[in-house]
Amino acid sequence: MAATAPSRRLLNLSASYRRPEKGEPMRRLAVISDVHSNLEALRAVLKEVGEEDIYCLGDSVGYCANPNEVLGLLRDRKVKTVMGNHDDAALTGETGWFNSRAAMAVLWTRRTLTEEGIEYLRRLPLDLRVEAEGVKTYMAHGSPDDRLWEYVDPRTHEDLFPHYLSKTGCRLIALGHTHVPYEWRGEGGCVFNPGSVGQPRDGDPRAAFAFVSIDGGRSSLEFRRVEYDVEGAARKILDAGLPSQLAERLRVGL
To answer: Would you tell me the crossing angle of helices 67-76 and 39-49 to the nearest 10 degrees?
Structure first.
């Protein structure tokens, strides 16, 4: 597991959302993560999602070549979004925890962001709490213990999932950061990762996200994959002078 980096963010630590229609069935919501400035992938996912409420688990920027356009689309679509480690690094310029290719993308993103994009990132909370039909949901980029940096993999963290559920007081936890979708269920609830919209790493290059439905106090997940213009996104990476390996990753989904 990767080393854990300290979080230096002191403001906008958390946010909560509750639908006002008490007792009414909640529409299913979409959970996305790790868009990483991939405009083509985000557009394809938003088209698939339609009018459902959308929550994003961070890393809206980094790696790909359209950070401002992605942030504008998330803002216009009113996507409720948390801070990711690439988002934070784009603000601070601190790249010590990244490999060279990721660091180059962070610094390029930092130079490219408009003032509007910077302000959008500054306002992002580190986590979100959502409640519907009595089901409390916690959302963060990394984990409840390290919201920006911890990589949560069921192969290494399964024994910690009951701790996460107890610590947050929630029955449903949505985490990003690893770019690999999974679902774990235990007696205390469910922990899941919807996968990555903009840079999948599970061998499938299609954009990934998940629908969450809550009915009668119970949650269910539907994982989705969406085709998008991979070559268009890859070509933009190369045209921007970003590392060619970042373009190749989109083609192979790793």
So the answer is: 20
Cβ-based neighbour number of residue 153 at 10 Å: 13
H or E element, residue 104? helix 100-112
Q: Is the separation of the CB atoms in 92 and 72 below 8 Å?
A: no
212 close to 191: Cβ distance less than 8 angstroms? no
What residue ranges do the domains of the chain occupy?
26-252
Query: What CATH class has 26-252?
Result: alpha beta
pLDDT per residue as tens, the chain (254 positions):
333 343 344 344 566 655 535 545 556 899 999 999 999 999 999 999 999 999 999 999 999 999 999 999 999 999 999 999 999 999 999 999 999 999 999 999 999 999 999 999 999 999 999 998 789 999 999 999 999 999 999 999 999 999 999 999 999 999 999 999 999 999 999 999 999 999 999 999 999 999 999 988 899 999 999 999 999 999 999 999 999 999 999 999 99
